[in-house]
Write a structure and sequence with these properties.
single chain; mainly alpha; 49% helix
Length: 80
């Protein structure tokens, strides 16, 4: 569905992904101000794993966080 090849000086894959996602959303008539963003998918993914006891280190690897504690510290809803 998407081309994930890293591009540019910093080998960034997310810019191309974001553009492709936007084009797909436009194609299926999603209104620009009502669309989910690529960044919101990252949050949702982490939000769903945190309360289901998935190890933070595994989630950090998947979302490519390099610093310990940021994945569930900044992302992932607080469990009540």
């Amino acid at each position: 569905m998407f081309d994930y090849k890293p591009k540019g000086k910093w080998l960034d894959w997310s810019k191309g992904y974001s553009h492709q996602l936007g084009r797909l959303q436009a194609k299926i008539d999603m209104k620009a101000k009502e669309r989910s963003t690529a960044y919101s998918f990252r949050h949702t993914f982490t939000d769903e794993l945190k309360p289901n006891d998935v190890e933070e280190s595994l989630v950090a690897q998947i979302v490519e966080h390099r610093y310990k504690g940021i994945t569930f510290g900044r992302y992932g809803k607080n469990i009540q």
